Amino acid sequence: MKVPRESSSKPKAEISAARKAAFNILLAVERGQSHSDDLLREREVNALSAPDRNLTTALVLGTLRWQIQLDHQFQALLSHPDAKLDLEVLIALRMGTFQLLHMNRIPARAVIDESVELTKQSGHRFASGMVNAVLRKLAKTPQVEMARLVLKGHGFSRAKRQVKKEPALTAEGMLPEESAAELALVQAHPAWMVERWIDFYGLEATQAICRHGQSQPVLAVRLASPEVEAELAQAGIVLEPGELLAVARTVVSGDVTATEAFREGRVRLQDEGSQLVAECSTSLDRKIKKILDACAAPGGKTLILAERNPTARIVALEASAPRLEQLQKRLAFLGERVECRRADAAELTENSVFDLALADVPCSGTGTLGRNPEIRHRLLPEELTRQSERQKAILAAALRAVCPGGRVVYSTCSLEPEENEQVIAEVLAATPKAHMVPLGVRIGELLHEDILTSEGSERLQHSLTPEGALRMLPGAFHTDGFFICMIEKTA
User: Fold this and answer.
1) Summary mean pLDDT of the chain
2) Residue range 349-353: average pLDDT?
């Protein structure tokens, strides 16, 4: 493709440290080298100033969340819309388009200049003119003019009057979202995901799922004791009560990770849905001596199991050597109460050994798209079958491992029936001496034990499936999406 070049006499634009970091992270994610969540916690990002760290995070997660819509926007302005762009050029265009549409405080000129310079410095000087031309055109389109006016607080009606041409699509979602195709484009989700969610959960619930996937996840923490809250307040951390759990809090402002309480493990970052999985696993009136945590890393649920069962011995399995090492470090303070073992849970051979097993299995993660936005770009429909085969093997092994009368809690952070209801149905069909235990009873116990709030208990009761499993859909709760099921072995 022949592209125009910028004048060589034009002064070289400066690229901020935040944009350089975001650009490199997005390249690594696109190449499949790592996950955005891990890359945003690496040394290079931590070395940035607080404002630059925040901007880097916003650029990375925002670009990944809106990538489908961003590509749709700028590709229409290319001379050859179907042309294959070099990866570095593609990332520069995505970042530039995201800033024009979603970050109204940044002047359009600055966005364009830095995008052009990123293209040059990445070794694609020949394409910098094209990036410049496309982003300039984009900045003048009704879509971007409308979006930036709305984001500046002009209001929809006033902004609409100021834009000469009716925009077909903006960052605020001008399409009605009444079909799978419209919803998929406006909320930047793969059409195949949206179509199946509408089939399973209906249009309204799917709209809520998609909007939740485009928002910054709530930062939830778990407090080791009531005194920790006062300590955090003195450190300038503003908290609000959690949505479901009495020990959970939502961070309103402040950096919890910079506090002594966080470094000492007296406050932990953990989604409330994730906490609830572990809370559902035990009951105070059951004598539990030995627990299996079949897929334990990174260890947040293991810590809750240890907290709620202070006299029980826990065997925590992890197949990955690096993740096992991290798990061992995190749980070291528990001493001999926890055995961290490198093992594949699907190949566990122990029989009738444990009183309780938690099988929080690896899954597609479609309930975590707000936290892990790149999943939507990597996941393929056919992978759900592969995931379910492994999940069935882990659940079957966990059922063999528990004693008669013992229970297995099966959970995923997936919204897909292939990984949830269908796994349970197939394993139970092959295991006659096991049956589901409706979680409504356990939710009532958690309320009685002052672990759940009354409002949280009521809302969870309304989220039970007809079979008694718990399905937490993103958007219905301010948590990741989870499926939780309890099974009892009868003999």
Assistant:
1) 90
2) 95
